[in-house]
Amino acid sequence: MQYSLNDSFGLGTRGEYFKEFNSGAGALGVYDADGDAGVFALTVSGNIAIGNLMLIPEIRLDSANQDIFLNKDIVGTQDSLASVLLAAVYKF
Questions:
Q1: Contact by Cβ (8 Å): 47, 54
Q2: Closest Cα partner for 57 from 22, 30, 31, 89?
Q3: For residue 37, which of 12, 19, 25, 51 has the smallest C-alpha distance?
Q4: What is the 3-state secondary structure (H, E, C) of the chain?
Q5: Predicted pLDDT of residue 13
Q6: Cβ neighbours of residue 54 closer than 8 Å, sequence gap 6 or more
Q7: CA triplet 9, 16, 87: central angle to 5 degrees?
Q8: What is the pLDDT of residues 4-42, one digit of tens each?
Q9: Which partner from 7, 14, 54, 86 sits 20 to 30 angstroms from 34, CA to CA?
């Protein structure tokens, strides 16, 4: 969903859900006793237009039903992950 506040700024959100069952293709790597695993993600993004340049900051929260993400010490795992990124797109 996207909402334009004016010609130069907009906000958007999107939700995603990914599930593997019967140990799937191995993309998630950790499964419950039935061989199932799933991830739900929510992303909030902005769109900032500066002439031909579009800046797209994003904040993403992922939550899994298994511990599939590395923790902050990179020695263990956890079931959630927060990410921040900035994309830049230039139109010629």
A1: yes
A2: 89
A3: 19
A4: CEEECCCCEEEEEEEEEEEECCCCCCCCCCCCCCCCEEEEEEEEEEEEEECCEEEEEEEEEEEECCCCEECCCCCCEECEEEEEEEEEEECC
A5: 96
A6: 47, 48, 88, 89, 90, 91
A7: 40
A8: 889 899 999 999 999 888 877 777 777 777 778 889 999
A9: 14
